[in-house]
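User: Reviewer 2 asked us to show a designed sequence for the structure in our supplementary figure. I'm pasting the structure tokens here. Could you produce the per-position amino acids so we can include them in the response letter?
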């Protein structure tokens, strides 16, 4: 039985530690001239699951040349929207047929439990379908301007687009970037995180299969400091779209100034989850857990700061801790696992160092977790217990800085004004939620939150149809929805003279 399961897993893996995975540049699968490779690690046990070729600046330049030629010379910029839609629908269909394999591979690459990766794959399919549909919908506008002129506005692709993503949703983030860019008619140079590249590589196999013309979609693998920086810097890239840490976003913004490329940045957060005393108690506890411990807390929009009204503070924490202690931590491939390992050893060390800072910070009290799990099989992986600090205050580093792991900090508030003040007391502005049964209060609070993604009596649900992005240092621009499509277009006004005759401005 165990053997049969192992065979099934090997088939689902689709990668091996002996075969070097290549990049896709100008319609060809290529190894980097660097000759270097990188191991991809399963964070649940530290084993090598795949090996990738390590791209260089030169590889980015080759991909850019191909993307430029495909856009301007080979005619991709004139490809009918219906054809772009057809290709994207095909991608969605093929991905759906291979959903089980993609979910399994995402789990062994990133660590998150299968129930999450199954959901991520379904969401990825939906994202490709959504943007396939958007491609053919009306996008222009017409204006009544001064007679006899008629003005109209058309949306056109920006051109060559560079895209860089992180490791926390390797497949889904690929779709959030690639689907709208291709639907809008751009050509793309795409870089996944070097930590979790395998499903992006497999996705590009599907792009090849459905028949995207040469040079339209290019995949370059490698490090941020080399490949990523070249994407941000290259003068022939017209736009760079980035998701990742705020510090990296800042350096990308600076690198992009050379040719003033357009930028969109989806960055970090330290999002508040506000619970008033009149909230549905069990629902609020449940969402507080989901808000921080889903995907091991490695979610940019995680509800990592829980703000509790003082009259329910003790009771809420007691129930929260009781439930957090029952979360089943284990390898993502095990059916009963509720929380997996962190993505890498280096990231685990970063999270543990923040927990140490929390333990040392004056006033903060650790009431749950706080350790790496070292016993048994889990000791081989990068597992950290669900961790909760209470009695935290705004001056603490664990309250101000993004930890990006399963670490919740809890703050107490007195009233509505206090809750809003504490919620906004951060350089970030990505997400936030409020729990209360008072509808008017919920609206008042949510409207005062300086954040781009918000919920009332919920935390985390995200939809392809609605815009995603942050205020303040959480980013620039929006992904998803029609906003996400528009980020990949230029706007052109066309003025049409309906009565063609000399102006008479100059006498002779
Ligand atoms: P990261 O910034 O270290 O890396 C993200 C990507 O950027 C990777 O592909 C990396 O190789 C590349 N990169 C690194 N340095 C670069 C440079 N100098 N120039 C160009 N590219 C470079 O982030 P991470 O650790 O992979 O991901 C975690 C971060 O991502 C968190 O801060 C999280 O909040 C953020 N994130 C934000 C969103 C959002 O939608 N706002 C979504 C997911 C993750």
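Assistant: Here is a per-position design you can include in the supplement:
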């Amino acid at each position: 039985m165990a053997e049969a399961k192992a065979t099934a897993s090997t088939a689902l893996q689709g990668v091996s530690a002996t075969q070097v995975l290549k990049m896709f540049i100008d319609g060809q699968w290529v190894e980097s001239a660097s000759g270097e490779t990188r191991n991809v690690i399963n964070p649940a046990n530290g084993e090598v699951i795949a090996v990738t070729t390590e791209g260089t600046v030169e590889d980015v330049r080759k991909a850019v040349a191909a993307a430029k030629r495909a856009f301007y010379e080979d005619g991709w910029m004139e490809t009918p929207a219906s054809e772009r839609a057809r290709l994207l629908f095909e991608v969605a269909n093929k991905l759906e047929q291979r959903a089980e394999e993609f979910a399994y591979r995402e789990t062994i690459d990133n660590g998150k439990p299968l129930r999450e990766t199954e959901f991520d794959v379904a969401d990825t399919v939906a994202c490709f379908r959504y943007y396939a549909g958007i491609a053919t919908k009306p996008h222009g506008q017409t204006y009544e301007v001064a007679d006899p002129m008629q003005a109209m506005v058309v949306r056109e692709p920006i051109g060559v687009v560079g895209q860089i993503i992180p490791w926390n949703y390797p497949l889904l983030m690929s779709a959030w970037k690639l689907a709208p860019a291709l639907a809008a008619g751009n050509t793309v140079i795409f870089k996944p995180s070097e930590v979790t590249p395998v499903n992006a590589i497999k996705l590009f196999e599907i792009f090849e299969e459905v028949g995207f013309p040469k040079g339209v979609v290019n995949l370059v693998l490698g490090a941020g400091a080399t490949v990523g920086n070249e994407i941000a810097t290259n003068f022939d890239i017209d736009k760079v779209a980035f998701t990742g840490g705020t510090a990296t976003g800042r350096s990308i913004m600076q690198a992009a100034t050379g040719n003033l490329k357009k930028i969109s940045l989806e960055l970090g957060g330290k999002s508040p989850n506000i619970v008033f005393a009149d909230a549905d108690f069990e629902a609020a506890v449940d969402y507080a857990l989901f808000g921080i411990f889903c995907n091991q807390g490695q979610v940019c929009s995680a509800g990592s700061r829980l703000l509790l009204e003082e009259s329910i503070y003790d009771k809420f924490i007691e129930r929260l801790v009781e439930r957090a202690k029952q979360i089943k931590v284990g390898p993502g491939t095990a059916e009963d696992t509720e929380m997996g390992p962190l993505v890498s050893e280096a990231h685990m060390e970063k999270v543990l160092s923040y927990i140490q800072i929390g333990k040392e910070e004056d006033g903060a009290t650790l009431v749950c977790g706080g350790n790496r799990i070292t016993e048994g099989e889990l000791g081989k992986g990068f597992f950290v217990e669900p961790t909760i600090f209470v009695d935290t205050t705004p001056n603490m580093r664990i309250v101000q800085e993004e930890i990006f792991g399963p670490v919740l900090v809890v703050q107490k508030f007195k009233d509505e004004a206090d809750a809003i003040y504490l919620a906004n007391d951060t350089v970030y502005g990505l997400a936030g939620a409020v729990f209360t049964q008072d509808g008017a209060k919920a609206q008042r609070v949510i409207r005062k939150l300086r954040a781009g993604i918000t919920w009332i009596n919920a935390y985390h649900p995200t939809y392809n149809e609605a815009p995603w992005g942050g205020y303040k240092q959480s980013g620039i621009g929006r992904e998803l929805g029609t906003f996400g499509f528009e980020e990949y277009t230029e706007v052109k006004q066309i003025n049409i003279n309906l009565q063609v005759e000399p102006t008479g401005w100059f006498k002779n």
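For the response letter, you might also mention the following. Residues 272-456 form a domain with the Aldehyde Dehydrogenase; Chain A, domain 2 fold (CATH 3.40.309.10). The two ends are 95 Å apart (CA to CA).
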